[in-house]
Amino acid sequence: MSSISVVSASFCHADEIILALPDRVGFRLIGDDALVGRAAERSGMSEHAVGRAFSARRSVFNSFTRDRERAVAHLKLAVAEAVVRDKLVIAGLSAVLVPTAVSHVLRVCLVADARSRIETAQATAGLGDKAALREIRRHDEDLTGWVSDHRGVDDPWQPSLYDIVLPTDKTPSERAIDLIVESLRSEAVRPTAASLRAAEDFLVAARVEQRLAGAGHHVDVACADGHVTLTINKHVLMLGRLEDELKEIAGPVDGVRSVDTVVGKEFYQTDIYRKVDFETPSRVLLVDDEREFVQTLSERLEMRDVGSAVAYDGESALRMVSQDEPDVMILDLKMPGIDGIEVLRRVKRMNPRIEVIILTGHGSDDDCRTCMELGAFAYLQKPVDIEALSETLRRANQKARESSRRADPEDDPTP
């Protein structure tokens, strides 16, 4: 039996079609929320962290944490397990993950023109023209980035990506469902031996990718008839050792018949392959208006495999706290605009799990007392010994991780 995948624009009455379609065809509906939940349960990440993978905006910490890649790996596995069961309506951005070789999945796109979507946003969400347009653009940017990443196409509405594209502003919902049902009866979307094999290969590849991501690795995974190919796209000094480690992890995965490793076209670029160490601090925000100092500090921490991002003022720091959710902040006190004490106060109000290390050259005993009362983890003076700072950072990171686990048991990033 075939299945259906549905990708839709926001505010185009897609829900009316998606919710009615399963009953019409006798299929079960599974959407992004359910698949994110399954991925979160498997990965140990929170549902919020997995769901952020859909956003076109990537965290400034992602090059160290690889949270997005880990989330996508677990999402692929959730989708692959659903696909091999058949008789499903898979709705949302997750539907994009189904490989084109799985031809017994009918690919549907629901879209409407901009004016119609704005009017729908106004009517259903109470948004004004500008707010509606902003929300539509945000969703379109996320979908465009997602399709580009997983299909290599910058236009998410390109007809070649789908078996049927329906303009919902011109097609009544009942008629749209009729057209989908008619398309589902087509010979082109009936299961074949090749398509069923492609679904199984998708599942095997997803299992391998999930296992590798859990071990801190991020390589491209392909599978053909159970034979897995791992493509290493970043330079590594001891290639043979990495290949052996990847094969050792992938080989025992259920369904794998053999494992080969190859060097990808980007292998000889300047980027260096970095295995994720889940115990090393990787979400550290450095806040200081002394640009040369903070950039040097970031480089010295990176040499110790600590992942950090930099903000040069309080306003930028607070914005990054909201958007990127660091675990630890190293904060100067004397800055233009919002000073360090006020930043500390707001950070602890926004997210008390973030541990803040004060690092200043101009503080007083009163400042120290105030900062500790506000919840600072430590108060250090410049110049600071890098080893002492690293040890303080390690302890702060450990406390932040423990706080996250107590608050949300699913939020532990350790595989």
Describe the structure.
By secondary structure, the chain is α/β, with parallel strands linked by helices. It folds into three domains: 3-189, P-loop containing nucleotide triphosphate hydrolases (Rossmann fold); 215-263, no CATH class; 284-411, Rossmann fold, CATH 3.40.50. It contains 15 helices and 13 strands. It has helices at residues 14-25, 32-43, 47-51, 62-65, 67-83, 114-125, 129-151, 173-184, 193-214, 239-250, 291-302, 314-324, 340-350, 365-373, 386-407; strands at 3-8, 28-31, 88-91, 105-111, 164-167, 220-224, 227-232, 258-263, 284-287, 308-311, 328-331, 355-360, 378-381. The strands form three sheets. The protein has a five-stranded parallel sheet with strand order 2-3-1-4-5, with helices on both faces. The chain has a five-stranded parallel sheet with strand order 10-9-11-12-13, sandwiched between helices. Strands 6-7-8 form a three-stranded mixed sheet. Strand 6 (220-224) and strand 7 (227-232) form a beta hairpin. The longest helix is centred in the middle third of the chain and has 23 residues, at 129-151. The chain is globular, with a radius of gyration of 24 Å. The protein starts with a strand and ends in an 8-residue tail after the last helix. Residues 409-415 have low confidence and may be disordered.
